[in-house]
Amino acid sequence: MRGARQVALYGVVALVLLWTLVPLVWMVLSSFKSPDDLVSSTPRLLFAPTFEHYIGLFTGGNALGGYIKNSLIAAGASTLIAVVLGCLAGYGLARSRFRGKHHVSMWIISTRMAPIAAVILPLYAVFRALDLLNTTPGLIIAYLTFNLPFAIWIMNAFFADLPVALEEAAMVDGASRFGAFWRVALPLTAPGIVTTGILCLVFSWNDYAFAQSFAGPGSQTLPVAASQLITQTGINWGQLMAIGTIVVLPMVIVGLAVRRYLVKGLTLGAVTGE
Amino acid sequence: MSTANPGGGKGGARRLVPSFEARMLLPALLLLAAISLFPFFYIIYMSFNEVSLIGGVDFEWVGLENWVEMFTDPNVRNSWITSGVYFIATVGLEMVLGIGIALLVHELVWGKNLVLSMLLLPMFVAPVIVGLLGRFLVDSTYGLYAWFLESTGLITWEILGSKTSALMAVILMDVWEWTPLITLIVLAGLSSMPQTVLEAAKVDGANYFQRLRHMVAPLISGVVVVALLIRSMDAIRYYDIISVTTNGGPADATKVIPIRLYETAFRFQELGYAAAIGLGMLAFSILVANLFMRILRGQERAR
């Protein structure tokens, strides 16, 4: 009886896994298929793998290397700025009690949740006036509109979980206020900092809307490069699946690396996991 | 219990301590003000103007014209309705499936961690790639799913070319990506339940569904609400999937409000009008953020 129930359970879970994994597996497989294998009337599971799509992406006039560099710089810089400022401000927020703190929190969280389309509009006009369109700094600023409030908010949640007594003890031992933060609180929230950094990186690396609106030929990022493979004359599905694999793989790896803290990060600190 | 003053014993530190927190907060908040408050007032100003992008940015005051237009424009109204349908369908399906899958995974005896890791993968995929991959899978010549649906006789037409199936397709792409988030959150709630109470109920003869209804449901309801709010906020935030699959079509069947806004601003160059639409969206997300804050404050009080 109990055995039968478990078998049924694993059967249903297997179906869920199939629904989840088939698209991803198919993407990776397709990126190694020759054009003939891609277009075959019945889908092919067995085929002679080819690297032609990857080779095609990295050679030629519009090689992918430049896009990857732009993506890394834009996502990396905005993550770095957000995490550094987020640690300072998150700590400041967690340890202070002042009138109107609620309003500051509300402001931060609303900024994080603002619809991207509604953010793009004023930023586009401002960037145009300031000559920031088609530049990497413009993109970094755009990514900060969601990464900075996110980092402040999450670091605040991580610091709030830390007992103040530890910092008080350090200060009794002669540490300065900043020393207590730097040498006691900060190391203890290391997992929080890593989680915040990784989630900021994932959000900005995966961005399409901002880059598509603000970035130009010299600053264009990887997700936009992927969408540009769809043209009036046809779609190079093989190359598209190869770019997809390149975009997705690193994020899956870093994302799963902080799985324990994902719940806290993704619920903005409202739920603590595992 | 004030935490603002951990060094209170040391005389003069008392007055200096609050300013330390302020100094920590200030750089981030100044930057945040520059990139959030300034654009916020700017978009409000835009909504009362006709904005032209010819040679820099040019404003012409038109008063409430954009706002009147927004409330009377049947196209915008239809987009709100489409957004509503899309929102209810995606978030609804994600909640039902996410909770169901979490209950299943929670019961697994072995391989629980591995299964969860695999289930989470879609969350890390860039939404634009989800859209492009979805388009590949339902492509009538190349697509694996299109082939499957056609050979079983379920759908024999171009999936993204027909109104109902196109809407269903973009909804399912969103469901594929974000159901794992609900599963993850609900699982966190399930694993923090007091096991002894559940075991006792089991010993007393309560069956699975009785336990589910009378014990599990009340215990995880808080977590479920958080999951719902988090998903609601993101559901109106992103529009990447629709943007690269149907871009609103066919015949406006998937033209949700952010797609309409984008088209109004950048294709028809009516930035002032788009600003009014954008503020409508913003009002919704601020409402959800408000609910979220209330829940967090409730948690703090309970602690």
Automatic annotation (TrEMBL), chain B:
InterPro entries: MetI-like, MetI-like_sf
Pfam families: BPD_transp_1
PROSITE patterns (UniProt xref): ABC_TM1
Transmembrane segments: 24-45, 84-105, 114-138, 166-191, 212-230, 271-293
Membrane topology value: Multi-pass membrane protein
Gene Ontology cellular component list: plasma membrane
Highest taxon of source: Bacteria
Entry annotated with the keyword Nuclease: no
Subcellular location field: Cell membrane
Main localization of the protein described in the UniProt heading: membrane
Keywords: Cell membrane, Membrane, Transmembrane, Transmembrane helix, Transport
GO biological process: transmembrane transport
All residue ranges annotated as the ABC transmembrane type-1 domain in the record: 80-292
Similarity field: Belongs to the binding-protein-dependent transport system permease family.
Record's protein name: Various polyols ABC transporter, permease component 1
Lineage: Bacteria, Bacillati, Actinomycetota, Rubrobacteria, Rubrobacterales
